[in-house]
Specification:
The complex is a heterodimer of chains A (702) and B (110). Chain A has 702 residues and is an all-alpha fold. Helix content of chain A is 75%, strand content 3%. Chain A has 25 helices and two strands. In chain A, strand 1 and strand 2 form a beta hairpin. By secondary structure, chain B is an all-alpha fold. Chain B is 74% helix and 0% strand. The termini of chain B are far apart. Classes of the chains: A mainly alpha (702), B mainly alpha (110). Chains A and B meet through strand 1, helix 24 and helix 25 of A and helix 2 and helix 4 of B.
Chain lengths: 702, 110
């Protein structure tokens, strides 16, 4: 371990942060220079990330993959009482893959933005925020503890808020950024509770120490008398809720489509490199914890599968090119969650593999849509058509990315990663939850078909057929600063699959932080096995190989079938006729899908209206009951006063009374003078009182 | 250097504490003496920064590790949040009464 490696996490973080800080000073006076500095900064981070990742992709034996790549010794951040909060940086194979993906995507998005955002009034400020956004994500990935991860997580929330609302003069953008912020914050409450619970149970925020306790199956005693498994389950669900908010899983998905109000490069950043990747990464990072209670991961699988189908069906009806891509992201994130939900080393690898490959082709698709929007100045596919002649490079790269997301066999990365997810679910361990996972697998085959179909539909409407608005078509053009990133990402959309897919199929231990899930046959390092364990491992490997061959005959037809259906329906005369015939009978279904299952309306009617109603009820209670009690007390006092007044007059000696009144008046006057309503006087009183107290304490104890 | 002057010229903990107590006193003075609410706000900031100087100085001259600066950063952040809220209050006070003089805002008079 040499010093360059130890410095790697710091270097990767320092470049984009420095870029953002420099941008603070130059963004107004020299916007172009700011853009170049930001792009160069993130490019440097990419070089460092590539330098540590590539040697690990090629040449490292699989059973050593999970060793730490680089780390910075944790330092004590602060000590309050007996609690020391430490933080450090750590890169293992999981972090390395993410770093490579995040920095590459972000660099390409920076380059693209130079062309796309040209002429925008806050051109320089835009680069400051996307640089900071990337910094936050990188900080999340290299954190070696939950606390700094949480800080980076919230910084990302802030950056996304600023960027979604970047075009702040649009009311829809203002609404969208607030919605994104609030919705993810709801998830974060769960995450916060999960972190607190874990801290109570383990006494530390550091992954290494938490996983050591998970390995030993023993937390600190005495968290409300719960046993180890229950605590782990509750903490997992808390963290999962945060991940669902960030990664837009049902029912917290509502912010992601609205986030399309941001400029297109921001959408690409949110949907590929940062933000939504964070949730999936969190589940992957905390995988040892999620595996403790056997019911947790099946829940993850079911949520993911449901979201994949749910969002996929909405995407089928979309007419806004970016909204279709947004729902497709939600759907693909559902695939990732389902993959993670499969459990074992296979599930872990499959979910995160899809995260990386998806980032490349989704960034490519979003930037491609940006190029299209830049060319025709509209987002409605109804106003496009025939564009492949006018913007051929955009079209070619878009086509590659579409094939990748559809899972076109052998040449695209999406094929391998989607295959890995289905395989992980199919070959999951035996037990009561196996049926659930097999069901998820079957549903996801349908999801894969759906994905291919709606992506082909959008492609056909945008790039093929006759131009529907001649004037927009005539003015369409593309520029190299925007097409070069597209080409790079399209190449990665193919290559990323080859680089990793062999590794994906070997069921080795890969969780990182020295964690060995010893209770699972699928999680053991092959080299260390003997006797019965080796037999179990071989049986499992055989099982996996068997499913791997079977799935080829299921997954490939699903993807190709979807592509074929989309092309036939939207590119042939027969398809046009068929659509005409189907429109009537299918109208109710399309109404549901077009209205996105009315989720926004349901939330409005329940949560928003509900909280308004609760406030109204509170106000009424305050006005009628609380004030009523006060008034009652007042009236009682009055009566009492009358009675005692009478007794006073008649019974008590007048002289004595006058004395008492005088005293009361005097005291009242004194206290009244103190309540002068002048803030300055209050401050003065507070200072004097403190001084008197200090003197008194000094006199007594000094 | 004249040895008699050494305690005055070598910067030690005491110097920081003197500076900090000066800042604190000036802050209190501003809070008590200024009629303008903005002036009072500046006084509050002075007091917070006096505390910061203390935190950093004690962190530097005792073996407390990075705690001093860490908490000073927390204080700076809280001060920023506090200033934001106070300025928002002042803005609405100005809209209501057309002035930011604290003596005029005396509705709480007993």
């Amino acid at each position: 371990m040499n010093t360059v490696h130890q410095l790697a996490p710091v270097l990767i973080l320092a470049f984009p942060l420095l870029g953002a800080v420099v941008a603070l000073f130059t963004e107004r006076s020299k916007p172009r220079l700011t853009a170049l500095i930001s792009t160069a900064a993130i490019g440097m981070s990419f070089l460092v990330a590539a330098g540590i990742v590539l040697p690990h992709v090629w040449g490292m034996p699989a059973d050593r993959l999970a060793e730490e790549i680089a780390s910075v010794r944790p330092i004590t951040w602060m000590t309050t009482g007996t609690t020391a909060v430490e933080f450090g940086f750590h890169i293992d194979h999981l972090g390395a893959a993410l770093l490579f993906m995040v920095t590459l995507c972000s660099t390409m998005i920076h380059v693209f933005s130079i062309g796309y955002m040209a002429g925008e009034t806050r051109f320089g400020g835009f680069f400051r925020w996307i640089g900071f956004f990337t910094f936050s994500m990188l900080g999340l990935v290299v954190s070696d503890n939950l606390l700094t991860l949480y800080v980076a997580w919230e910084l990302m929330g802030l950056s996304s808020y600023k960027l979604i609302g970047f075009l702040y003069h649009k009311p829809s953008a203002q609404e969208a950024c607030k919605k994104a912020f609030m919705t993810t914050r709801i998830g974060d409450v769960g995450m916060f509770l999960g972190i607190v619970l874990l801290y109570l149970a383990t006494g530390t925020f550091r992954f290494e120490e938490i996983f050591a306790q998970v390995q030993a199956k023993a937390f600190l005693p005495g968290v409300a008398g719960m046993d180890f498994e229950t605590v782990a389950m509750l903490a997992s669900f808390g963290l999962l809720f945060g991940a669902m908010g960030k990664s837009a899983q049902f029912p917290l998905h509502v912010w992601l489509p609205d986030a399309m109000e941001g400029p297109t490069p921001v959408s690409a950043l949110i949907h590929a490199a940062t933000m939504v990747a964070a949730g999936v990464y969190l589940v992957g990072r905390m995988y040892p914890l999620f595996e403790v209670h056997e019911a947790v991961l099946p829940v993850v699988a079911v949520i993911g599968t449901f979201t994949a189908l749910f969002a996929g069906t909405i995407a089928v009806c979309g007419t806004d090119i970016k909204k279709v891509l947004a729902y497709s992201t939600i759907s693909q994130l559902g695939f990732m969650f389902a993959g993670l939900g499969a459990g074992g080393a296979l599930g872990f690898k499959a979910g995160l593999f899809h995260l990386v490959t998806h980032a490349f082709f989704k960034a490519c698709l979003f930037l491609g849509s940006g190029s299209v929007i830049h060319a025709v100045h509209t987002q409605e596919v109804g106003q496009m058509g025939g564009l492949w002649r006018k913007i051929p490079v955009t079209f070619a790269t878009w086509m590659f990315a579409t094939l990748a997301i559809a899972g076109f066999p052998w040449i695209t990365s999406g094929f391998y990663s989607k295959d890995a997810i289905l395989l992980a679910l199919a070959a999951s361990e035996e037990g009561p939850w196996q049926a659930v996972r097999l069901g998820c697998m079957a549903a996801l085959v349908g999801g894969a078909f759906l994905t291919a179909a709606y992506m082909m539909r959008v492609t056909a409407l945008t790039f093929f057929g006759k131009p529907r608005e001649q004037e927009r078509y005539d003015h369409a053009h593309e520029s190299p600063v925007m097409t070069i990133p597209l080409v790079v990402l399209a190449v990665m959309a193919c290559l990323a699959g080859f680089a990793w897919h062999e590794r994906m199929l070997q069921p080795e231990m890969v969780y990182g932080f020295g964690y060995f899930p010893a209770h699972r046959a699928s999680g053991l390092p092959a080299v260390a096995l003997t006797g019965e364990a080796l037999e179990a491992y071989n049986r499992h490997a055989e099982h996996v190989a068997h499913w791997h061959h079977t799935l080829l005959f299921i997954a490939i037809p699903a993807g190709l079938g979807g592509l074929a259906l989309g092309s036939v329906l939207y590119m042939t005369p027969v398809g046009a006729l068929a659509r005409e015939k189907l429109r009537g009978p299918l109208a109710p279904v399309f109404t549901v899908w077009k209205n996105k299952y009315w989720i926004d309306e349901i939330y409005w009617a329940t949560f928003v209206a509900g909280s308004v109603a609760v406030s109204r009820a509170m106000a009424w209670f305050d006005r009628e009951i609380v004030d009523g009690l006060v008034n009652l007390a007042g009236r009682l006092g009055l009566r009492l006063g009358d009675a005692s007044g009478w007794a006073d007059r008649e019974v008590v000696d007048a002289q004595f009374v006058h004395g008492a009144t005088g005293l009361a008046w005097g005291a009242g006057g004194l206290f009244s003078a103190m309540q002068g309503g002048r803030v300055r006087v209050y401050v003065y009183q507070a200072v004097m009182a403190t001084a008197v107290l200090a003197l008194a304490v000094a006199a007594v104890y000094g | 250097m004249n040895p008699a002057l050494r305690p005055f010229l070598e910067i030690g903990l005491t110097h920081y504490l003197v500076l900090s107590s000066l800042m604190f006193s000036l802050g209190i003075l501003a809070m008590v003496a200024r009629r303008n609410a903005i002036g009072v706000l500046i006084g509050i900031e002075l007091i917070l920064n006096a505390a910061n100087v203390n935190l950093v100085a004690f962190g530097r001259f005792t073996d407390a590790g990075p705690q001093g600066p860490v908490f000073a950063i927390f204080v700076i952040m809280l001060a920023a949040a506090e200033a934001a809220i106070a300025l928002a209050l002042l803005l609405s006070l100005f809209e209501r009464s057309g002035s930011v003089s604290l003596d005029e805002a005396s509705e709480l008079k007993g």
